[in-house]
Amino acid sequence: MEREAGSRRSPAKRAAIVRAALELFLDEGYARVSMDAIAARAGVGKQTVYSHFGNKERLFLAVVGEARTAASATPADASPPGRTGDPRADLQAVGERLLRVVLSPAVAALHRLTVAELTHHPELQESWRETSSDALLAEVADHLTAADRAGTLRVPDPLLAARQFVLLMATEGRVRSLHGTRPLSDAERRGIARESADLIVRAHRT
Amino acid sequence: MEREAGSRRSPAKRAAIVRAALELFLDEGYARVSMDAIAARAGVGKQTVYSHFGNKERLFLAVVGEARTAASATPADASPPGRTGDPRADLQAVGERLLRVVLSPAVAALHRLTVAELTHHPELQESWRETSSDALLAEVADHLTAADRAGTLRVPDPLLAARQFVLLMATEGRVRSLHGTRPLSDAERRGIARESADLIVRAHRT
Amino acid sequence: MEREAGSRRSPAKRAAIVRAALELFLDEGYARVSMDAIAARAGVGKQTVYSHFGNKERLFLAVVGEARTAASATPADASPPGRTGDPRADLQAVGERLLRVVLSPAVAALHRLTVAELTHHPELQESWRETSSDALLAEVADHLTAADRAGTLRVPDPLLAARQFVLLMATEGRVRSLHGTRPLSDAERRGIARESADLIVRAHRT
Amino acid sequence: MEREAGSRRSPAKRAAIVRAALELFLDEGYARVSMDAIAARAGVGKQTVYSHFGNKERLFLAVVGEARTAASATPADASPPGRTGDPRADLQAVGERLLRVVLSPAVAALHRLTVAELTHHPELQESWRETSSDALLAEVADHLTAADRAGTLRVPDPLLAARQFVLLMATEGRVRSLHGTRPLSDAERRGIARESADLIVRAHRT
DNA sequence: TATGAATGAGACTTCATTCAT
DNA sequence: AATGAATGAAGTCTCATTCAT
């Protein structure tokens, strides 16, 4: 029935359900996960799941929504490395951090899941954005703006350049890691970040 | 039972099954498609499906495999436009063709399906390669090599540059079209191709 | 737990529950109505329903019992039309009133519900009587007795005749209205009352 | 999927399902019967039930439809008693036969079930007719026509009179037997038939 | 007392697969 | 070889009832 706030429904159980559902959805995909399995893993009755979320689809959307939110918040936790003044090195550093996040098992699985279910749950499309992390995108743009001001690069449209950098690097990472399925070595990650940073820097050299 | 070649199994029925299965898998995803539905759409009995492919997973892998092969062969459908000598214009032209292919409903759906099922069918991973079209990649590399020889660009590693171009553009197209879920206007496609071509050309300007 | 009278249980809530339950049972039938739905429509908690009535069956019997009582009391709502002295006209007039009552949505639904659940709730059988309205039956008998006294008819057993009249007319009305499911026009009702009155009058003509 | 004629679906299993479903529906009512129970009693798998009838409602309608047909065909099996020439006796004899049919457990339960489910299955309404047996109605009308010709009665509208006779008698029988729930003694049945026949005969006496 | 969260059983329906024709 | 009827397990969701607040 899904009542309003103020109900006595246990937030702890809700959290357990969300966690269990997320793990299962990420591992198995939407259709392969049963409500029974979610309830069992969460350690609650099936009806508890239904009274919290109404049905499987709403549970799925809630879970994915919260996971997206969490994922967007996470990457900035690593302290942003200070600027060295060398745009190429700065970009590569940011890129390596981004790759670690994007290719982490959870984030990669969330990405696969979202792509997989895009056509079946139109609500997903509204929340869809390739760069799960606008914060990181802004950080890259900042670097480029700074370089432009310092005269080391000439970047007329820093946001576009940042987007191209992030998109290219993330995609290359996904392709090489079989969409996060196979772990990447540090060297591979570094290589990918270097190649992408190189392209961007060369394109905007003065 | 799956007999050897030379059996009396009808190739026409096999083709009908593959076609039906592909359509359904692309539309619904692996788990949501039933063998019943496949047999019905193919106009054959269920046992025929089983005798041809053994089980659902083998059918899926066969179908996706053939679809990938077909998709890789297709893109050259449009006669490759002659070179104009202007690298930017040439790249953009190739790019627009590529986008049309990559974002076509069938190719985009095949991509989503592959990503979705990557973890459940390890065999898929072996066939995985982002650029479904090596032919096109080679064509881009050719353009770049020609430009390098002509002295209009300086491209030390044409294959890398080509790959970056294709990857960036395809990804930008996918993001903007919600992974092929929403059609892109000609103008959008042109814009994406232009931006990507621009980046590559600027990065390799002499 | 069901406490005795004098408890602190609110009669207002009890009434709300009974009203809600009656509406739902009449619309859906016993098995299709959930205690959840009753509590929700009554605007009370589920446990309140249980503490008032113990379980679903007892609630049902109480509700139907009260509804039968109410229905039996109602029919005289319209002031009984004075006698005209013409037995046929009088009978027909009474009959039309009866039909309106018997085929009213609530009374018809109560009748269907009782018939439907007769075998599952033996207590219902005790309260069963076709003529939900003894008052009306007596009124018809009165008319006939009066006619007998006046010499316009010869009615040795007025109660039997009244019963036959009421039963035949009510049944004909039920059949033609699909057991109260389809509304009857005034003309139809009048026709049914006329035919039935005619039969009775002819059978007892002097 | 419910295919056309010519399929290989076993008619024996279909019949077993129909029989099992009818018994259960008559005993318990629509909502209380589970498809599991039907399959189990029929001795077939649940999917067999579904492949034959598609879903619970279609099964129900098919079962009720066939039962109605069967019930309509049955009553004439008892050899229609020859006419004695005494309309009252003839009518009473036909009436007793009718009562036996109408109050037989199966027919009475079918009637209760139909009334109970009338609002939930609109298709039922189309097949609804109080007199499950048009044959019997015709037989009564024949008696009355014959009497009219013989001059023993004056029956301007034999079909109306027959209908009134049948309706009144069946209803009285239903009321007295708690809608077929309680068996009626021979004497009761005879009494009901006599009273009804009496009414009709008196109404049409010359 | 009254609330509604929680439960375990069970509802209808569909699935991948096998069997009999 | 090919058909589709049949199966048993499992899917989503709802139920009457109880428990903790």
From TrEMBL, chains A, B, C, D:
The keyword DNA-binding applies. Residues 11-71 form the HTH tetR-type domain. Keywords: DNA-binding. Gene3D superfamilies: Homeodomain-like, Tetracycline Repressor, domain 2. It comes from the Bacteria. Residues 34-53 bind DNA. The keyword DNA-binding applies. This is TetR/AcrR family transcriptional regulator. It comes from Actinomadura luzonensis. The lineage of its organism: Bacteria, Bacillati, Actinomycetota, Actinomycetes, Streptosporangiales.
